[in-house]
Every structure is written in C-alpha cells, then in structure tokens.
C-alpha cells in the first residue's frame, strides 16, 4: 500500500478546492513549484488532482525500475534488459519532480518545466509559436493529449476529461500464449497515467517516438512488448503501462469524496524474447546501446 494516508489525501483535496476556487475565475494560469496549468478554467482542479495522484504510483515504479528485470511488474516485457534500469528510473524521477530542462521552445536557453494547456478552438491563436493547431489534432485523432515536438507545452484535449481520474478496481491483463489479452486500456487509460505519458514525450524530446518517426509510436500492449530495447525506451506508452502495472496506491474520486485503496501490482507479463514476438538476436545484444538515448540533461 502506498505511504500516503487517507486522511492526508482528503486534507490535500480540501486544500486544492480552496486554492483552485480562487483561480478558476481568473485568466491567470495556476502555477506552483512543480507545474503550470493554462486555460483550463473550472477543470483546473481536475487536472491538478490527476497530476498530484500521479506522484504516488511513480514512487513505486521508480523503486521497481531501479531493480531492472528483478523488479518484476513487466519490466522485461516493456524495457527488455537490465541496462534499461537506470534510464527508466531517471525518466520517472524527472516526471515525479517535473524537473525543469533546457532546450524546449519557446525558451530554448532557459530551463522549462512542463506547462499543461487545455485545448479549445482559440488555443493556436494564444500560442503563436507552435507550428500547428492542436485543436483539429484533438478532434480528428480522438487523442487524450498531445505534445508538439520541441515545445514545453503539453496540450490536454477535451476527450481527456472523459477518462476517470484513477482506477478504482484491479485490471491486470491476463497473459495467454505469451501475449497480453486485449484489455490494456482498463489498466492504463486514466487521467493520471495519460499525463505521465505526455510528460515522457516532454522529457524524451527529439528521441521520442511519434507519428512522424520510424517506427511510429506504439499504443497497444503487445505492440509495446514487441519493440526492441532502444525503441522501448523511446515509446511513452511503455512507461505508462509499466507505471500502471506497478501501482499499489490510493485512488481518489474528487466528485464523490471517496477514497479507494487499489492493489494493482500486476506480476504476469509476456517474455519478449519468446514467440510470438519476433525480436532478433541483434535486439538481444542491444544492452550497450540503450543508454544515452535521452536529451534530458540540464547542462546549466
């Protein structure tokens, strides 16, 4: 069980309600030491709770990742080899602390933390430096969120708010014939994990897989398992599934003021080096190449 107590979580939620109530009527962004939220209005509180709840599973996932394959919970399936332990743990620590990094537009030469923007039809006009309008992307693709390569903004699509904030039941997928059953969305499609996914894009930067890379970004459980070691580290969904698989944490329903303790802790996962996954012998020897794929180091 996570260390956060029910009483502390309820008290935290009450403080969020008080702080957000003073801000949602203002056009100014909500800002604290970890993140900035823009243009979300009355939904600002929901984004803030999702971000804060995401901290809890990250702590457990960092501990598991630091142990590599021995840490279990799908590490081998999603990241293949022990050489990935350090970069995976480092990535998750960056997200947990929302570490400011250099090289993100429009502030290339100063360190930027992630900034979350709720998308509407006027977003493109408010952020003139971005190369394309995120509103059509949200509506056409049905995405929960998106990150435009190279920028500090994480765009939250309207569909994001159709997701539950967090799980209230155990949804570990079964493994049948060395493949996950097709229920991965029940494991990971929640607001807190969706935001973690977009933050992986932010910290990976130009290394991140996307619609414009080869291979393209993968989303389904077995597609993520099928990636080789290097591309597994560069695919945000692999992190999202891994964090969700390790989570043993408190979930909070802000609308009903209900706290539910959910023991996810998934332990069964396919072996990526056995059929039907066609990883080549070359992929098995990629340990020495998986390090150094991030451009997240702040050189200041």
Model description:
It is built from 12 helices and 9 strands. It is an alpha/beta fold and 300 residues long. It starts with 5 loop residues before the first helix and ends in a 16-residue tail after the last helix.
Chart the SSEs and their pairings:
Layout: H1 6-21, E1 30-31, E2 36-38, H2 44-66, H3 75-79, H4 85-97, E3 115-118, H5 123-126, H6 134-141, E4 145-147, E5 153-156, E6 175-176, E7 179-180, H7 184-188, H8 191-204, H9 221-226, H10 229-233, H11 236-246, E8 248-253, E9 258-263, H12 281-284
Parallel strand pairs: 2-3, 3-5
Antiparallel strand pairs: 1-2, 4-5, 6-7, 8-9
Helix pairs in contact: 1-2, 2-4, 2-8, 2-11, 4-8, 8-11
Features:
300 residues, alpha/beta, 5-stranded mixed sheet, two-stranded antiparallel ribbon, 12 helices, 11% strand, globular, disordered N terminus, disordered C terminus
Provide the spatial order of strands within the biggest beta sheet: 1-2-3-5-4
Described by the principal axes of the CA atoms, the overall outline is globular
Reading the helices and strands in chain order gives HEEHHHEHHEEEEHHHHHEEH
Q: Give the strand tally.
A: 9
Structural class: alpha/beta
Straight-line distance between termini: 38 Å
Largest sheet: 5 strands, mixed
Q: Quote the beta fraction.
A: 5-15%
Number of helices: 12
Enumerate the spans where pLDDT stays under 50 for 5 or more consecutive residues.
1-26, 253-259, 280-300
Mean pLDDT: 82
Rg over CA atoms, rounded to whole Å, is 19 Å
> Could you estimate the helical fraction of the residues in percent?
25-40%
């Amino acid at each position: 069980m996570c260390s956060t107590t029910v009483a502390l979580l309820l008290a935290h939620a009450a403080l969020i309600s008080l702080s957000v109530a003073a801000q949602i009527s203002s056009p100014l962004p909500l800002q604290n030491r970890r993140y900035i939220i823009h243009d979300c209005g009355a939904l600002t509180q929901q984004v803030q709770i999702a971000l804060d709840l995401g901290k809890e599973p990250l702590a457990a996932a960092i501990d598991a990742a630091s142990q590599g394959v021995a840490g279990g919970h799908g590490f081998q399936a999603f990241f293949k080899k022990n050489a990935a332990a350090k970069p995976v743990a480092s990535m998750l620590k960056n997200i947990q602390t929302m570490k400011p990094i250099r090289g993100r537009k429009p502030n290339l030469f100063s360190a930027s933390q992630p900034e979350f923007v709720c998308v509407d039809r006027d977003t493109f006009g408010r952020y003139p430096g971005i190369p394309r309008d995120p509103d059509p992307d949200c509506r056409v693709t049905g995405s929960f969120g998106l990150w435009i390569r190279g920028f500090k903004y994480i765009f939250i699509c309207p569909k994001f708010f159709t997701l539950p904030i967090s799980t209230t039941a155990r949804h570990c997928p079964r493994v049948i014939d060395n493949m996950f059953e097709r229920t991965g969305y029940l494991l990971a499609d929640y607001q807190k994990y969706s935001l973690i996914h977009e933050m992986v894009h932010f910290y990976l930067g130009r290394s991140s897989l996307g619609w414009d890379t080869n291979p393209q970004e993968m989303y389904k459980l077995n597609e993520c398992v099928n990636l080789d070691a290097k591309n597994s580290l560069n695919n945000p969904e692999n992190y999202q599934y891994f964090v969700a698989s390790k989570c043993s944490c408190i979930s909070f329903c802000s609308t009903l003021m209900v706290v539910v303790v959910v023991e996810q802790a998934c332990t069964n996962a396919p072996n990526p080096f056995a059929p039907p996954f066609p990883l080549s012998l070359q992929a098995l020897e990629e340990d020495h190449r998986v390090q150094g794929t991030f451009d997240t180091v702040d050189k200041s």
